[in-house]
């Protein structure tokens, strides 16, 4: 039983942040740097999202523009705007942008009745640390996210388990999601480049 529990726990928690991966891959947040996560930064980010949508609605006969987003800005968006999409309470969230890659280190708190399955809830309820890392880039209006690493409480989670959990928990809400498959960028976004400390979006 002690050997089975970490695997089930890791898988259930990994499913909880797949929503974040999808949101990040869809490039939902781009605002100027702030001193720390805040509701104001999240609101400013939403304004940027609206700007990108409006530019896309005007059509392609326009000059391409760029926007930069920092790690803190992404953290703000997740903490203040994506909470309802994550089936756990997000106690902390740390984004790390490096050359061509993005990572998220977060602390999640699951209620005793998160899934409605008594056995599963007993196994992974409580507080857990989750780390997700992958490569992310886009060009020609096509994006690609390659999952590289998932850890729960320091325990590596096999990719095959992540794929199974995506099929069960994510696809019912996002049926088009395929782990590691290229995807169309939203709202006319042309490209995305991840660099240390920032992401640059062309739209």
Features:
single chain; 203 residues; alpha+beta; six-stranded antiparallel β-sheet; three-stranded antiparallel β-sheet; 5 helices; globular; disordered N terminus
Which secondary structure elements does this structure contain, and how are they paired or packed?
Elements: H1 4-25, H2 39-57, E1 66-70, H3 71-81, E2 89-98, E3 101-110, H4 118-124, E4 126-139, E5 142-152, E6 155-156, H5 159-170, E7 183-184, E8 191-195, E9 198-202
Antiparallel strand pairs: 1-9, 2-3, 3-4, 4-5, 5-6, 5-7, 8-9
Helix pairs in contact: 1-5, 2-3
Helix content: 25-40%
Strand proportion, as a percent range, falls in 25-35%
Computed Rg: 17 Å
Order of SSEs: HHEHEEHEEEHEEE
Name the structural class. alpha+beta
Please indicate the count of domains. Answer: 1
Beta strand count: 9
- What is the count of DSSP helices, taking H or I runs of 4+ residues? 5
Mean pLDDT value: 79
